[in-house]
Write a structure and sequence with these properties.
Two copies of one chain form a homodimer. Chain A is of the alpha/beta class. Chain A is built from eleven helices and 16 strands. In chain A, 32% of the residues lie in helices and 23% in strands.
Chain lengths: 355, 355
């Protein structure tokens, strides 16, 4: 899933190049490329599909030159994750009705890749043997208020073969800090990573039961998938489809939902603070990726500026400094929640060219 | 005099376009243009001469399209102000041996223009009637440590016709704060504006007596001035000439030095603080010239950024934010003294392209 359009890291991320298409960690690879390469280590190229917005077709093909165009599923309208999953499910089923597959965001950070791939592999074995909807729960390391949580049935043990796999009791919305602390202490709550593993059969059934009107739109009538008619069919389906998330539409309703409890170092990189946390810092705690920066009395700052600009920063602590071709932002990290409002103001006052 | 190469307002001012060529106050006119237009109000165009560096010929002609090329005196090397005055003196003498003229920096701020022009006019009358070197002293309004001071002979009154004209007792270097306070209280000390008024005869004699070896180099041998041979002659003169200021070389030594005490609102705009002081501020005390800036919790900042960049600033107090085509500087105003060292570091580490 590489269709997000977030402007949370604005002006680094913009509508024309959202987060997944950015080398936000300064590693030399964008998050989409990192995600692709991670899965590519254990899956053949022909088994990897990217779902993204029609507007992001070219940037996707540019960033992943290996991927054949037929494996890039283009969403003509934004409809959240449930239609995305429905589209992918029916397309994959038309190629391989017995497929087991993973649904994963393309803009997350995975630190321990080996551990991640082990969880994925075990999850696929589980999905092959159970008509179940499996989600990956992340062992929380702090009382995050920015994540949804999954509560498990601690007593419930699937089988000795699937150690760490649990039946899901509830999905919860983002908690307040007090609640998050209770979650953390209880040992029953895991961060909802938004990564799912299931058989085409299991997710098809879940779509039929829980989102029948969405499912109908994407069913492979007249065998359109992987033909020249797919784009027109999908255009119609998305036009008629409502906006709904897979969590709300299926995961929170279905009975056969399981979680594999994992601990491979994960972040959705959803905030500047989390980006800061997971970035390499210099001796003064600064995250500076450009080599063309001179800093004096700079502490705990995130500096994202183009390499061809000489940037001289003096006397800033806990600031974000971002420069793009047409925007400069200087903002305390503590005020990052305000950036969303700033983006709205920019959209209103200045027009779309900066967003 | 428009030959300065200061990088005090770096990166706004650079070696390729120093302060005099910048619209540093955001008025729509550069300091050179303002200075030219100020004098143009009482002097015919043919009486105005610009002395500047050879490298600044084109920018000068671009900014002052009215001025004929023969009135732009080009210095092939930097030699401080004494050679500049010697060159101008001999060139002007070759055109009009009886001239009285004014020597003025091109990068200062004059607030009360009418009062300034009155002082200038009165000064020219004085210069025409006295073989004297007249300088303009500014009534100090605060104990500035960034200016040189002129001490007057308070008892000495030239004549009732020249009220406010005094004999100079001493020129002093930049004082420390304690001394500056004493200067201010005494009433005997005036800021040295670096603006001079004299007859060609008076300054010629002063050059002959105090800087004979400089004077000799610029004497109008073979009537070269205003001919095709002038440039080659000046190239030789500057090559052989030493680096020396008019203050040190003449004003501090000559006997016939006078000052006219003035109070027309003057600043040499030598620091970011003085620029801040003399700029128009918004309700939060910010000096922001770009209309494409959004500010949140911004106080007492100077923001100089290109109009085509959207600049979003949040939570800064007493900062300088300057952006140019290839440099971004964010620095507390209180650290402005460090900018000189930063410029030196930039020169060393990054090369000349940024300076």
């Amino acid at each position: 899933m590489a269709g997000g359009s977030g402007t949370r890291f604005w002006p680094l991320s913009k509508e024309t190049h959202p987060k997944q298409f950015i080398d936000i960690l300064g590693t030399g690879r964008t998050l989409l490329q990192q995600t692709f390469e991670r899965f590519r280590k254990i899956f053949p190229l022909e088994n990897i599909f990217i779902v993204t917005g029609l507007a992001y077709k070219q940037i996707t093909l540019d960033q992943l030159p290996e991927i054949p165009e037929n494996q890039v599923l283009l969403e003509p309208h934004r409809r959240n994750t449930a239609p995305c999953v429905a589209y992918a499910t029916h397309k994959i089923k038309s190629i391989c009705p017995d497929a087991n597959f993973i649904v994963s965001p393309a803009d997350h950070l995975i630190i321990n890749e080996l551990s991640f791939l082990e969880v994925i592999s075990k999850g696929l074995v589980f999905a092959a043997g159970h008509t179940a909807l499996l989600t990956i729960g992340i062992k929380p390391t702090s009382p995050q208020t920015g994540y949804g949580y999954i509560q498990i049935n601690t007593e419930d043990e699937i089988s000795s073969a699937f150690n760490g796999f649990k039946k899901v009791k509830t999905f919860t919305e983002k908690p307040d800090l007090e609640m998050a602390k209770i979650f953390l202490e209880s040992g029953e709550f895991f961060w909802n990573s938004g990564i799912f593993i299931w058989s085409a059969k299991a997710i098809s059934e879940a779509l039929e039961v829980n989102l029948p009107e969405v499912n109908t739109l994407f069913e492979n009538k007249n065998a359109v998938y992987n033909t020249v008619d797919e784009a027109a069919f999908i255009e119609n389906a998305y036009s008629d489809c409502r906006n709904i998330s897979i969590d709300y539409g299926i995961m929170e309703k279905a009975e056969n939902v399981y979680v594999v409890c994992a601990d491979f170092g994960w972040s959705d990189l959803g905030t500047w603070s989390s980006l800061y946390e997971h970035s390499t810092k210099d001796a003064n705690g600064n995250v500076i990726t450009s080599s063309n920066t001179l800093d004096y009395n700079l502490k705990n700052c995130i500096v994202k500026v183009p390499e061809d600009k000489l940037v001289v920063l003096n006397g800033l602590e806990n600031y974000i400094v971002v420069e793009t071709d047409n925007v400069l932002l200087v903002c305390p990290i503590s005020e990052e929640q305000e950036i969303k409002q700033i983006v709205n103001q920019v959209k209103m006052l200045k027009g779309g060219e900066y967003i």
